[in-house]
Amino acid sequence: MPATTPPLAEAEAFCRALATNHYENFTVATRLVPRGLRQHLANVYAFARWSDDLADEAESPAAAAGAIADWRRQLRECFAGRATHPVFVALADTVRRTGLTIEPFAHLLDAFEEDRAFDEAGVACRYASRDDVLAYCRRSADPVGRIVLGLEGCRDAALVAMSDAICTGLQLVNFWQDVRRDRLAGRVYLPRDDMRRHGVDEAMLDAPAANAALKDLLRDEVAWARGCFDEGAPLVGLAPRVLRPAIGMFLAGGRSIADAIERAGYDTLSARPVVGRWRKLQLAAGAWWGLQTARLAGTP
């Protein structure tokens, strides 16, 4: 915590630097929203990034627990108008201007704490069922979409449900893309029920390549994620107009990750499937065209 509370301009610059240095696509994504929202997105991203680092970069699970607890205290102070950390000074301004509530931010911290507790307990296969995975996604992914909609004052229940579906789909394809990476970190997000149904055990995740059973399992998991994307897709045409290009890009990006996993034959052990540079350029171009269309339609 800083000795003195930084001025707002300095805190905002801190958040912009944190966002651009840690997320290579941040500049592209923020170009797809009005200038007035860009700093707010940087402030929100800085909160999420800092929170994640507290959980993952601590010297021990116990140290992470203390850091997350202190960060949660500072979050409450922020919403009470007593922010001191640069991230919270900037976020407090976003909250004042947009009317965001504390709940989605607290839920993100709940997810980080959940991961930390599993790490401390040495639990690898974390969730028994898809319902349990979805409950985690409601804390780890869905709050982000709710915050973004909230920046434009959108709290319509039907639109929020579509946003939740897209965010859950994005979390799921990230899990299936990173089976090897998560396994090396002692984390398995594949539902145990699905693993048993396909005859997959933990030991198979340590192999240099996926066997037929694991490939079949991941085929089903990717189909689950695609279903989430389909459920949320109408949001691209129904969300506040200024958010539609960015939402469309993230939806298309998630589907592209699913496509990359499929092209890899559902083997995410031998190599991590990624979206190629050319496809990223296509996505950015499509989103840019959507932005121009919105502007021609009269959106500020």
Q: Let me know the largest β-sheet.
A: none
N-to-C CA distance: 38 Å
**Overall 3D form:** globular
- The total strand number stands at 0
Percentage of residues in strands: under 5%
Helix content: over 70%
The number of helical runs is: 15
- Rounded to an integer in angstroms, the radius of gyration calculated over CA atoms is 20 Å
Mean pLDDT: 89
- Low-confidence segments, given as residue ranges, are 278-296
Topology order in helix (H) and strand (E) letters: HHHHHHHHHHHHHHH
The chain-level structural class is: mainly alpha
List keywords for this structure.
mainly alpha; 300 residues; 71% helix
Compact summary:
This protein is mostly helical. It has 15 helices and no strands.
How would you describe this structure to a colleague?
There is one protein chain. The chain is mainly α and 300 residues long. The protein has helices spanning 8-22, 26-30, 35-56, 61-79, 86-98, 103-121, 130-140, 142-151, 157-177, 179-184, 192-197, 212-232, 235-238, 244-263, 277-296. The chain is globular. It starts with 7 loop residues before the first helix and ends with a helix.
Helices and strands in order, then pairings?
Blueprint: H1 8-22, H2 26-30, H3 35-56, H4 61-79, H5 86-98, H6 103-121, H7 130-140, H8 142-151, H9 157-177, H10 179-184, H11 192-197, H12 212-232, H13 235-238, H14 244-263, H15 277-296
